[in-house]
Specification:
heterotetramer, A mainly alpha, B mainly alpha, C alpha/beta, D alpha/beta, A: mainly alpha, 12 helices, 2 strands, B: mainly alpha, two-stranded antiparallel ribbon, two-stranded antiparallel sheet, 6 strands
């Protein structure tokens, strides 16, 4: 009994963590700048590869994961300045440019690093509740997902950067007139978005097989979560992840993975039809 | 009617443009006389995709609707063609019925999906996301039809490995009909492309086309000029999607094979790449650019092998960053500016009289 | 210099070295068209296949070519895209006019190629192990098929570990068909299938599956997952503390997971293979040494790469016996059912009825240190199933793929 | 005089807020009717109800004898309404001439289109700007272009939402003249306006809106003379 209850929670926590971690970076970049980052999966892959390489070079895993996150963050900042900034007034073009970027990065990695990369191995082992054994690391992932939401909350509501960022998001012209340096805010936002993608990769690195195209495993789920959530990470992503995790866990458990996957897409279509700006729009309208 | 061939929505006009276009057409018609039959067939194959690109140009470039669903209709029509052709025993009867069925299926699906979205006031980026979701759902669905229970009549959908067993399009004629392949395929597709291109050009410059650009620029304003915006959007969505269906039928006929991977990612993003690269607001640019891009990507794949995808990605990034209106349109603008300067007209838009 | 020049260059160089021994080459080169993915998702499998073919071409050229003609290899990279497979099949057959077409990884790519090969009436060699059943006179299959991999492996697993089986399969033709094969082989043995799951391609998260497995309490797992994303299952299963024996026709010798994953993850994986790099015969060791001398960075010499090498050697035997490269002559040369090649695994013979090959099958396992152990040698196994169900290419050419639930009409 | 547009008890609620409450309004054929009121009086909401951008929460709207309460905007326009929005909303990327063309293409026989465009450009003082993208025009020119587009539909009822916003006094005066010329040609005009000098210049009737309700109605003189109106609205600067 206890085992089954905990198993249900564990399944939910696992899907929830995957949705939140893979979507957070994309949501920040979309919400802040209206840019749909098609290279999101490649930032995740960057986090994975840097983590694995640092780990094989002898760093302890947590430090290697920090490296993966930091490198993705820095690359994000640089790319923002070089290819994203000229396109702020053309959101569809930024979609194309990031798609091109993802082609270059995926295939470039294949040519330079090779078609496979040695894996790490999941730390912490398993534990038992009732009839089932579980991976302890999965609980770390769940905690990390909660942590990411907390971090985003803190960053946007409790820091100077966050206040400026929200001002820019609401009214870029006015914020600039008030002395907010918009370019710096955008660069940092993109960096944070990329860094969170890298963090997602760093966390999942020990649980997956590593190939250059692995970023695509995260893409569908992260897009779905962002679409359902709408433009705000705080109001949208978290409730969207909860809702989708419930839908997907249920469908997976009762009907199998393929129905879970198609069901997720159908949910997206219906939610867009009913809530045009996702949960964000719904919640802001209710509170307005 | 014919004067609609030139107008504000299309680049190029007058004897110089049409003379050049005629020369290109003549060269294309003469090409099989001296070229390797393989190259003729290969060019014919490139033409297959251009219908889909023109459809997207119409929807996205002229009317502002970014559909990520071109391969959805491509796939529906392709599978529809296969099912009908196989079940009616192939030959002229089966394949012609298959062609009709594929196009009707694409058009009907576009009408239903379009009604759901357009009258549900889904627009902008969300239009793209809904069309992409539907497309991926179809690809996933078809991918799991491997079992024998997934058959329509004699035609097995056959999951990820794809459907086969349909004949190429066959016109009625002696000896069981004239099979549309190789050089004949090339000529018939040129004929089809010229017709579709000219018709779309006239459509773009007609009153209908004027309304489309008005909707693209500001849908609310267009509505307050008395235009039933949603009906126009639906009509364009059905037309553009049916063109994708035409590509789907032709592709299936060409290779006698279609799989779910022709529908899902990355296939679904290819039409957008072609049209964006070429210059989405112009039909001529899309026509020329799509062909050049197909040829270029294939050549890159053949000659640069491992680095092909890197080069394609870099090419795309460079185009977007440095030639924002699209590669072909950028060159077109340059030509227009040069000739206009000679005629001392202030700017190309001066030619907007009707 | 692009890769194609490089290939021709090395092939030419080895030929030059060989000339003094073999005398003048007679006639124009024999063109080999090769389609292998070296970019995209499947690059890790396509690269060893390319290497195997290159090595074979160089070796054949070094010993005088075929019928005194040297081999010219033309490789194109379809990037894992079915449409590119179609384009390049046409290109190789119509423009380059290759004498034989080789390659393709997924079954979908093979099915993309076959209709075009059929219309051109060309000769095509498919070098992968696969779900079996293609009855097509234009195709020669070199890889192992279910009666070789599964009829050996599965009964052994049942006897050794028990009768409660849980199947995890890719939701893909290969997964469905191999699962059906498993049922038809194991049902008569009294096996109880305590669970069966089909996973969409590209899925990388398996917590639900792992829990379902724990609930069902199987004796062992029948693994039919495909692709890198799905192979994340093993790491996750291991982390959750599930330790069960596993059997699969596509792991280890094909995906070399024991070279890519940390030790312990693939522990107790069993597979039936016609080739694996650790094979301990003098012929195999010599083969590995030649390969490693040529491609020192190869992560693993997998069975597909090896099969690609075998394909060229078989082609050489066929063409030399037929004294021709025409399809009808080649098929005539294999018609008596004796034509074969002495390969590192043992002798491989072509079955003319199905145009599939016999293989020496060995059962291997992985231990906790990622070391391979040979559990059993099954000897030579014939590709008998197609003949049994009525495919006879000596009499008719249906160009169909048959499966246990799609049998030819008699 | 016949009633062209009639609102009966029209209300519009946003959540708990009643923006427009039980407004009765009749616009007679041929008049220039101005709708005034302080900020937040509900003028713009009322306009959006008339043109069909919002649906009323209660009440009915009749136009030329038809109940159009539930009609979509485009079908009201097809019945003879035409609107110039508050912020200039022209097709910025398209040439000025094409803006007019799109507006009039279904109302003018094809053979006369070019001549009619020319005539309108002249009337709007944009004759030399026909080929420029509309977005490059000055703010005043864009306002005029949009009036031109509204007029090009040959409407029976022309709705003008703050046609003089952002214009200089000189431009405002010329706009007034234009409106009067159109009215003289038989067009009925309903305008929302802030600028009292403009209202005085053109209005034949005035309705004052306050807190979503009709507060007063009458001729310009009556309204200007009404001390209650002066109190809520005319108060300080415009009273002169």
């Amino acid at each position: 009994m206890l085992g089954n209850l905990f198993a249900g929670f564990y399944q939910f926590a696992d899907v929830f963590a995957f949705l939140v971690l893979s979507a957070a970076g994309l949501a920040i970049i979309f919400g802040m700048m209206g840019v749909i980052n098609m290279a999101h999966g490649e930032f995740v892959m960057c986090g994975v590869y840097v983590t694995a390489a640092s780990y094989h070079a002898g760093l302890p895993l947590p430090l290697a994961q920090a490296c993966g996150t930091a490198v993705a963050f820095l690359i994000g900042m640089v790319l923002e300045a070089v290819v994203i900034r000229p396109l702020y007034t053309r959101p569809l073009d930024s979609l194309l440019v990031t798609w091109g970027l993802s082609l270059v990065v995926t295939q470039g990695t294949l040519v330079l690093v090779g078609s496979t990369f040695p894996g790490i191995g999941t730390p912490l082992g398993g534990f038992r509740v009732g009839d089932y054994t579980f991976s302890a690391y999965r609980m770390v992932l769940f905690a990390a997902a909660i942590g990411v939401l907390g971090f985003v909350w803190f960053l946007f509501l409790r820091t100077r950067f966050g206040i400026q960022a929200r001002a820019v998001m609401q009214n870029p012209g006015m914020a600039q007139a008030l002395g907010v340096r918009r370019n710096r805010v955008y660069a940092l936002s993109f960096g944070v978005g990329a860094g969170l993608a890298g963090f997602c990769g760093a966390l999942y690195a020990p649980t997956m097989s590593l190939i250059p195209t692995m970023g695509s495993s995260f893409i569908v789920e992260s897009f779905v979560t962002v679409v359902v959530g709408g433009s705000s990470v705080l109001l949208g992503t978290a409730p969207a992840a909860v809702a989708l995790a419930v839908i997907r866990t249920g469908l997976n458990a009762w009907y199998g993975q393929i129905i879970g996957q198609i069901g997720l897409l159908v949910a997206v279509i219906l939610i867009i039809r009913v809530l045009p700006d996702g949960f964000t729009g719904w919640l802001t309208r209710r509170t307005a | 009617m014919l004067k609609l061939l030139d107008g504000p929505q299309t680049m190029g006009r007058g004897p110089a443009f049409w003379g050049a276009a005629g020369l290109v057409l003549l060269a294309a018609l003469a090409y099989p006389l001296f070229a390797d039959p393989y190259d003729v067939g290969n060019f014919g194959y490139f033409f297959v995709w251009i219908f889909m690109a023109l459809g997207l140009c119409l929807m996205w470039g002229l009317c502002g609707m970014l559909s990520f669903g071109q391969t959805f209709f491509f796939g529906l029509a392709g599978y529809g063609y296969g099912v009908i052709a196989i079940d009616l025993g192939n030959g002229p009867l089966g394949t012609m019925a298959g062609l009709a069925a594929g196009l009707v299926l694409a058009a009907a699906a576009a009408a239903v999906l379009g009604y759901f979205m357009i009258y549900g006031r889904i627009n902008g980026v969300f239009f793209g996301i809904v069309t992409l979701s539907v497309t991926l759902a179809l690809a996933y669905f078809l991918g799991q039809t491997a079992g024998p229970e997934w058959a329509i009549g004699k035609a097995r959908l056959n999951g990820f490995n794809g459907m086969q067993g349909m004949d190429p399009l066959t016109f009625p004629g002696p000896d069981g009909g004239i099979v549309l392949e190789e050089t004949l395929f090339y000529y018939v597709l040129i004929l089809g492309l010229v017709m579709v291109y000219l018709l779309l050009r006239m459509l773009a410059n007609s009153r209908f086309g004027n309304v489309l650009v008005a909707i693209r620029e500001d849908a609310e304003r267009a509505e307050l000029l008395g235009y039933d915006v949603r009906r126009y959007q639906l009509a364009v969505f059905v037309l553009g999607s049916t063109l994708a269906g035409l590509s789907g039928v032709l592709y299936t006929s060409w290779g006698q094979f279609i799989t779910p991977s022709s529908i899902g990612l990355p296939a679904a993003s290819m039409p957008i790449i072609w049209v964006a690269f070429s210059g989405r607001t112009d039909l001529t640019a899309t026509l020329v650019g799509t062909f050049l891009l197909l040829l270029g990507f294939q050549s890159l794949t053949i000659y640069s092998q491992e680095t092909a995808l890197v080069l394609m990605g870099a090419l795309l990034m460079a185009t977007v960053l440095f030639v924002p209106r699209g590669f072909v349109l950028g060159i077109g603008d340059l030509l227009a500016r040069l000739t206009m300067r000679r005629r001392r007209e202030p700017r190309p838009a001066a030619a907007a009289e009707v | 210099m692009n890769r194609r020049d490089l290939l021709l260059g090395t092939a030419g160089a080895s030929l030059a070295a060989a000339l003094p021994r073999t005398g003048q080459a007679a006639g124009p080169p024999i063109k080999i068209g090769l389609l292998e993915d070296i970019s995209g998702d499947l690059a890790s499998i396509g690269l060893p296949k390319l290497h195997g073919t290159q090595m074979a071409v160089d070796e054949v050229n070094a010993t005088g070519g075929i019928l005194g003609r040297k081999l010219e290899l033309i490789h194109l990279d379809p990037q894992g895209d079915n449409a590119r497979y179609q384009e390049f099949t046409r290109r190789l057959l119509q423009r380059d006019k290759v004498d034989v077409l080789i390659g393709g990884i997924t079954s979908a790519s093979r099915e993309a190629v076959r209709p075009i090969v059929g219309r051109q009436n060309a000769f095509y060699i498919y070098t992968n192990q696969y779900e079996g059943g293609v009855c097509d006179a234009n195709m020669l299959s070199v890889g192992a098929v279910p009666e070789q991999q599964l009829s050996t492996l599965l009964p052994w697993m049942v006897e050794r570990f028990g009768k409660r089986v849980y199947t995890v399969a890719a939701d893909y033709n290969f997964g469905h068909l191999s699962s059906a094969w498993g049922k038809s082989i194991m049902k008569p043995l009294g096996v109880e299938f305590v669970g069966e799951e089909f996973i969409p391609l590209g899925v990388s998260q398996f917590a639900q599956t792992i829990q379902n497995i724990q609930r069902a309490k199987p004796d062992w797992l029948y693994m039919l997952d495909v692709g890198a994303a799905q192979s994340s299952f093993y790491e996750q299963k291991n982390a959750a503390g599930v330790r069960l024996p596993m059997a699969s026709p596509v792991k280890i010798m094909l995906g070399f997971e024991h070279k890519r994953f940390p030790a312990g993850v693939m522990k107790d994986m069993y597979a039936a293979a016609n080739w694996f790099e650790e094979l301990d015969t003098p012929e195999a060791k010599a083969f590995v040494a030649r390969w490693r001398a040529k491609y020192p960075d190869e992560v693993y010499i997998n069975d597909m790469g090896y099969n690609a090498w075998v394909a060229i050697m078989l082609y050489k035997q066929l063409a030399e016996k037929a004294k021709s490269t025409k399809l009808a002559d080649l098929r005539g040369a294999m018609a008596d059912g004796t034509l074969g090649v002495d390969a590192p695994e043992g002798r491989i013979v072509i079955d003319p009825k199905s145009q599939h090959c016999s293989h020496r099958m060995r059962l291997i396992s992985v231990d906790g240190e990622n070391k391979i152990k040979i559990e059993k040698d099954f000897g030579d196994i014939q590709p008998f199933w197609l003949g049994q169900v009525g495919c006879n290419l000596l009499q008719s050419n249906p160009r169909e793929q048959y499966t246990p639930d799609n049998l030819p009409r008699r | 005089m016949t009633t062209l547009l009639e609102l009966q008890g029209v209300s519009r609620r946003f959540g708990g807020f009643l923006a427009v409450r039980e407004v009765d309004l009749a616009v007679a054929a041929g008049e220039i009717h101005c709708l005034i009121g302080p900020n937040g009086a509900g003028k713009s909401t009322l306009f959006k109800l008339v043109v069909g951008r919002y649906e009323p929460s209660a009440g009915r709207i009749h136009f030329r004898g038809h109940d159009v309460t539930r009609d979509a905007p485009h079908s009201r326009v097809q019945r003879g309404m035409s609107i110039k929005m508050q912020a200039p909303s022209v097709f910025r990327a398209l040439p000025v001439r094409q803006n007019l063309h799109i507006a009039m293409q279904h109302h003018v026989p094809p053979a006369e289109l070019a001549r009619e465009e020319e005539r309108l450009l002249e009337l709007l003082g944009l004759a030399s700007e026909g080929a420029r993208p509309a977005g490059e025009l000055s703010h005043g020119q864009q306002q005029w272009l949009e009036i031109g587009m509204a007029v090009a539909l040959k409407p029976t009822l022309l709705l003008l939402d703050e046609p003089t916003a952002g214009l200089s006094p000189e431009e405002t005066f010329r706009t007034g003249e234009l409106v009067q010329r159109l009215a003289a040609g038989g067009m009925t005009v309903l305008a929302v306006e802030h600028d009292m000098s403009f209202v005085k210049q053109i209005a034949t009737r005035v309705t004052v809106l306050h807190l979503g309700q009709v507060f007063a109605r009458g001729t310009v003189e009556e309204i200007v003379a009404d001390p209650r109106v002066a109190e809520i609205y005319l108060g300080v600067p415009h009273a002169a």
